[in-house]
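REQUEST FORM: STRUCTURE PREDICTION
Request ID: SP-0412
Submitted by: Lab K.M.
Chain count: 1
Length (residues): 259
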Amino acid sequence: MSEPRLGWVDSHCHLQAIDGGADAAIGRARDAGVSHMVCVGTDLETSMQAVQLAGRHLEVFGTVGLHPHDASKLSAEWGRLEPLAQSDRVVAIGEAGFDLYYEHSPRDEQESAFRWQIHLAKRLDLALVIHTRAAWDETFRVLDDEGAPERTVFHCFTGGPDEARRALDLGASLSFSGIVTFKNADELRAAVAMTPLDRLLIETDAPYLAPEPHRGRPNEPALVSVVGTAVAAVKGIPAEVLAGASAANALASFRPKFS
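STATUS: Completed
RESULT:
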């Protein structure tokens, strides 16, 4: 089986959660010109599933982490998450951070899990994938305290220019999802416009957040080009230029295993 060529890269998806099965979704993505997918773990079970999928498909790489919703599982799962993170095709820690919109885990436990994952990313020299919702100040406070890992990605970036500037000043990259296609996302599109081309990634967050005109239906990695084309339009560049740049940025963010 030959290595996949570089094409569109879905820098963040949850293949484990796609109805109809991950294998079929990966095949559709391959047919749509997607060369790489980063399958994200949100707890021990989904992280194990991500690693297993990465082991079966050359196009897929995994992450290991605890989503803020699952931060309460840290004490029970950290002993197995850390060795799992050292698997060959794991390219990042996370998604980690804060979600104070729902606050399914208490915020102090979210903070503890976030700090633990920052330390783990640094120790293993892996990228850190950040989830932040209704928690910009808390997220930046912890990153200022701990120091952002050299390769940090704000997944599904939803802020405006001010939040984008703060993240970029930390040295982070910003990953944009199908939200950029939503009618009420003017502030997000302003953030896209100001993000340097060499700090920009594209994702689906599948099966969530399908882009227009697919909104309201399950999302999947095959639609990452729809997101990328919308981002390219905001940047005023051809879609193929955006595809190449975002793929190169993904390679840089998820090195050395991502190739």
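NOTES: The longest helix spans residues 107-124.
Reviewed by: T.R.
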